[in-house]
Design goal:
mainly alpha, 421 residues
Length: 421
């Protein structure tokens, strides 16, 4: 290995170790790693900006701002009470309903937007039932990454793959939705074993929930109506943004700007609700992973993957889904997918039918996000919200649940790929 590769790899390992140990705030660790890379000349400052995914940051900031305004209407409390009453106050039924809602919304929106909408609802209903919200939030994180796998717009890697391979929204639905449904059903069954018998609430708590009037939860009726209308528009914007040539960040930031204007809330108060430490963490992490990309470590990994398969389709397909999942659980999946795309295109140019490899890459990169706390944007965002409310989700605790669930989903995906292709 060259000196720049050694430095980039050591910095990455140190940043990951700091995050896992939780002795240093993850935002501080990621930014420190980025600064070290710049200090040693691995990348210069202007170069580091090029590795930052401003589209992702735009979606994060835009939707955090949007949700900050919407929650002032009482919409989340309304939905929380309504869902709880449909479930008759039963915590297990509530968990299942929220898991399904999360998965569906993640397929139509993006994962981050979904957890920003569902998270406050979950915290509200758990407070009513006087139960720990962490199991609910954990299942929603996992469901968001599974649901986001199903469509072209559900997860950033799918957007990149769809663009490179000229795949439509319908192509993703036809090829990935069946396995996503199977994985989600299996996850719900596992959740039943993990959490079903442990979630106990008093009859008084359940009765008190059933007595609540969801209409009284609406704090600002005009804002409530505006919020519902804007959510529908935002969903349409995310679904159509590729067709009209507008990036998802523009949709999110436009929605935020409109809500700040028509919501008539105190702007300073809304902006303070944004998870700025989470934003800073992503900035640093993008640069740290960018350093790995620049010195060729990620490219070397991708080349090794291709050489190891010797061009045999089934082996390549299984290896890609497994390695993509493991790497995406540790690294950000965007630079890895960006590296793999030209490799697959090169294989296609040699006459190989690579269509199954695109689906393997999509399944591996998206499902791999469930492996660790930093595996996907939704994980980081929702864990940040949970910590702010006094319910921290640690790296190790997430790993104990997320990594085995990720292995289960990848195993199902591998079997699906072999049977279908």
């Amino acid at each position: 290995m060259t000196t720049p590769q050694i430095i980039a790899l050591v910095v990455f390992i140190l940043v990951m170790a700091a995050i896992v140990s939780e002795k240093i705030h993850r935002a501080a660790a990621a930014v420190a790693g980025a600064i070290i890379l710049i200090f040693f000349g691995i990348i210069d400052f202007n170069e580091s900006l090029g590795f930052i995914d401003f589209n992702t940051l735009g979606v994060l900031i835009g939707m955090m701002t949007f949700v900050g305004v919407v929650k002032e209407s009482g919409l989340f409390e309304y939905l929380a009470i309504k869902s709880a009453k449909i479930a008759k106050g039963n915590p297990w039924r509530i968990m299942v309903i929220f898991v399904i809602i999360t998965a569906v919304l993640s397929a139509l929106l993006d994962n981050v937007t979904t957890v920003l909408l569902i998270g406050p609802m979950t915290l509200t209903i758990c407070a009513m039932l006087e139960i720990n919200p962490i199991p609910f939030l954990m299942t929603q994180i996992l469901a968001s990454n599974v649901g986001g796998t199903a469509t072209l717009i559900g997860d950033p890697p799918n957007i990149m793959i769809g663009s490179a391979a000229d795949l439509s929204f319908g192509d993703f639905i036809v090829n990935l939705l069946p396995v996503v449904v199977v994985i989600l059903v299996v996850f719900i069954l596992i959740f039943k074993v993990m959490y079903g018998r442990k979630m106990k609430v008093t009859q008084d708590a359940m009765a008190s929930v059933m007595e609540l009037d969801e209409k009284k939860a609406i704090k600002d009726r005009p804002l409530f109506i505006k919020s519902v209308v804007m959510i529908v528009i935002v969903v349409a914007g995310f679904v159509l943004h590729g067709s009209i040539g507008v990036s998802s960040s523009v949709v999110a930031l436009t929605a935020a700007a409109v809500m700040l204007i028509i919501g008539k809330q105190e702007v300073e108060h809304i902006l303070c609700s944004i998870e700025w430490p989470t934003i800073l963490f992503f900035v640093g992490l993008f640069v740290v992973v960018g350093g790995m990309e620049k010195v060729g470590i990620i490219t070397a990994l991708a080349n090794f993957l291709m050489n190891a398969t010797h061009g045999e389709m089934m082996m390549a397909m299984i290896l890609i889904v497994i390695v993509s999942a493991v790497v995406s659980a540790i690294l950000d999946n965007i630079p890895f997918v960006a590296t793999m795309i030209p490799v697959i295109i090169t294989m296609e140019a040699s006459g190989m039918d690579v269509m199954p490899l695109w689906w393997a890459l999509s399944l591996g990169a998206c499902l791999g996000g469930n492996g660790t706390l930093i595996g996907a944007s939704a994980n980081v965002v929702l864990s940040g919200i949970s910590k702010r409310e006094g319910y921290p989700i640690t790296f190790i605790n997430f790993l104990k649940v997320g990594f085995p669930m990720m292995l289960v989903s990848v195993a199902i995906a591998a079997v699906y790929l072999v049977i279908r292709y």
